[in-house]
Structure formats: C-alpha cells, structure tokens
Write a structure and sequence with these properties.
Layout lengths: L1 H17 L11 H8 L10 H12 L21 H13 L10 H18 L6 E5 L2 H19 L4 H4 L8 E5 L4 H9 L7 E4 L9 H9 L5 E6 L11 H8 L3 E5 L24 E5 L11 E5 L2 H8 L4 H4 L20 H36 L3 E2 L7 E5 L4 H11 L5 E5 L2 E7 L7 H16 L1
Parallel strand pairs: 2-3, 2-4, 4-5, 5-6
Antiparallel strand pairs: 1-7, 6-7, 8-9, 9-11, 10-11
This protein binds pyridoxal-5'-phosphate (PLP).
Length: 448
Amino acid sequence: MRALLARAAELAADHRESLADRPVARAADPHVLRAGFGGPLPEAPSPPSEVLEELARAAEPGLVATAGPRFFGFVVGGALPAATAADVLAAGWDQNGFNAVLSPAAAAAEDVAGAWLKELLGLPATASAGFVTGGQSANTTGLAAARHHVLAEAGWDVERDGLTGAPRVRVVASEERHATIDRSLRLLGFGTRAVEPVAAGPQGAIDVADLERVLAAGSGPAIVCLQAGNVNTGACDDLRAAREAAGDAWLHVDGAFGLWAAANPATAALLDGVELADSWACDGHKWLNVPYDSGFVFCARPDVHAAAIAYRAAYLTGAGEVSGMGDLTLESSRRARGFAVWAALRELGRDGVAELVDRCCRLARRFAKALADGGAEIGNDVVLNQVLVSFGDDTDALTRKVQDDGTCWLGGTTWRGRRYLRISVSGWTTTEADVDRSAAAILRLAGQ
Ligand SMILES: *Cc1c(COP(=O)(O)O)cnc(C)c1O
C-alpha cells in the first residue's frame, strides 16, 4: 500500500507539474482511448502496481488540463494544493461522510468548514450546511426544502402524501435560470411547466418589476428561484429588491459560482441582501478550487432542511439520534468532502479567498480589454469572472481553432440570440502572463 500510494501521488504530481506547458486539450481519438482501457473483461486478478501503471498510461492521452492556468471553458477551477492533498488523504483514510458514528473526524471537519463557509458567504450563522456533490444537487436539495415548507404552510405533508392531490405550487424563476433548476424541478415532481418565467434585464439579472407582475398575477404557495452569477455574463439578481417583491414566498438562490462574490469586499455589493433568502446553492469545485465533486446547500431553517431530506437512520446508530450530515444531503454513504473544503479554507484564509475572487475578476477584465483592443466585441459588462467575446460571423469557427491550437481552451455559447466565445477565469493558477498569452493566441487565430 505504501509504495502504491506514493507512486499514485508521484503520477498525480507529474501531471500537475506539466499543466503550464502542455497543450490544454489534445484531439484524443475516443477509439484509441477506449482501446487503451479496453479488451475483454479480465478473468484473472492483476497486481495493484500494474493496474496503476496501466491506468496512468491509458488515461494520459485523454487528460485535459482543466486544472491548469489556461483552461477558461465552462466554469472550472483547479484544485488547490492543500485541498488536493486532503482529498488524497480522504481517499486513503476511506472515511464515510454519512454520520458522526462512521467518521467523527469527517463530521467535525464539515461542522467547522460549514461555519467558515457561512461566514465568508455572508449567510446566517444559524443556517444548515450540507456538503453535496455540486450545484445540481444543491439546487435539488434547496428546492426540496422549499417544497416541504410551502406545502406544510398550506397544510400538506408532501413527504408522506407526495404531490398527487397537493395544492399547486407556483415556481417563479428567471428566464435566465441555469438548466439545473429545471432538472431539479423535474425530479421533485413539479415538472418544468410549473415555472412561471420572469424576464431578465440586458445583462441577465432578473427584472424585479416583472417579478412583481408575475407574483401579483397568481396566488397560493410560491417558490422564487434567484441567481447569483449568470453563467454567461456573471450578472447577479438584485437579491434585496427580489426579497421585498417576493413577500413570504420561499426564496432560493442558485449561486454556484456567483455566491463567492460575497467573499470579496470589491464585489460583495453584487450580493447585497443575500442573507435574506431561505436557501442557497453553491459550488466548491468551481471558484473555491477544491477537487470534484463538491458543492454546498444552505438552508435558513435547518428544521425544514432536515424535514425534507432526513434519512431517519436512528435504527443504524441505535442511539435514537442522527448526526446532521446524512440528513442534509441526498446521498447517504458518501466521500468525506469536508476535509478538502476545510483544507482549502485553511490554506487561503479569509484574505486568500477574497484575493482569489478579486484576482479572477481582474484577470477577466484584462482578458476583455486585450481582446477588445484587438478588435473583438465584448458582449457583457464584466462584473465578475465571465466574459463574452464575439468576432462576428467567424466566432464559431474561431472557437474550434482556439480549441485545436491548445494554447488555451474556451467554449462557445449563445447569448441573446448571438454566438460568443465564453471565457471564465476561475482557477487559482492563472496569471497575467497566461491571460496575455491566451489573448494573443486568440487574436492571432482570429487574424488568420
Ligand atoms: C455550474 C452551475 C450549476 C451546476 O453546478 P454543478 O456543480 O455542475 O452541478 C448550477 N447553477 C449555476 C449558475 C452554475 O454556474
């Protein structure tokens, strides 16, 4: 075991050390990759050391440098050193994050890291914190708490009786909501037709006057879905005004990456009023730069959170009492995610988190300026770490050229009916030199 884990760490470190110099992505032939992993199901056992070397060889041509300094696609960070090492330990320790009986250490780490997260993100100290797989799971869990609460208020026990025959629940959400909200609504039995869409302004933040109009047009139990950090523009809904407009509706905030703006004094005003919501979804594996998979769901009412999600596992502990962890996430047995989150927050501290968020925003502005100076059109106000870039009709062809070139990686998106290159600066390793080199490569390819 000792030699095997040391070798795994060495292989992982080799990969990390190569990230700044290797092409960000290579055109990997899926047939060749599958052949590397492939062949018939092995009949006989193999020595673990051979398995490890075989895995490293097979995977190498298909590894993307998402953890490197010039990956700007989707919204992707690269795990911090202490967080990466902590996750290696979590795998080595093989702790189950289900409850404090299975891992008192995992429970304590999540307890402390959860309190730190709430403080950094400007959320009430009394809120519950569940360590989930990511934004999708956080949205689903937060909306399950919402479903419990608004139906309980209407005299309906949805956990016992389901949705058949229940009072209709209104789901009021921005037309610019993330697609994971719709999947959560499908899974929770509301269906996507339950959504009463609200118009968004030019940057993608919710139009509060239209929110008032939509809410006034109906009645009954209501959930309002808001967003901090539009995936195209970085725009954040006006949470304070939306809270006032929403009355006693349940207010859920999808802040997968945008919630981190609250941790940086220079961007915190974008999240003014964030503490007034009822539930919040946030990612660790995006802007906090912890390993996959890692997200957080917070709920202002821990009793509601547990009522919607609790596992009721008293029979497993024999103690008639359940630890909070497994009662706050959709998984029962799971990886002890709190170790890596604790390590990232311990490594950065409050100042380091603020500096990371601020630096990414600054680099996004630098990127936008360099491209605009080179003739590109910037499609959004760069308020956070997201930049939309257009080169007119050539934009899609250019996206492919940039991806093939390998200097940096970015994806394409459609915003307000137009195609754009989308840049997200979310990783802790990106420097000004990386931005300048990437912008130069994009402009060179655009000029060809
Ligand atoms: C990324 C993202 C999600 C989904 O998060 P996952 O961690 O990929 O599940 C949800 N909402 C927003 C706004 C996002 O940016």
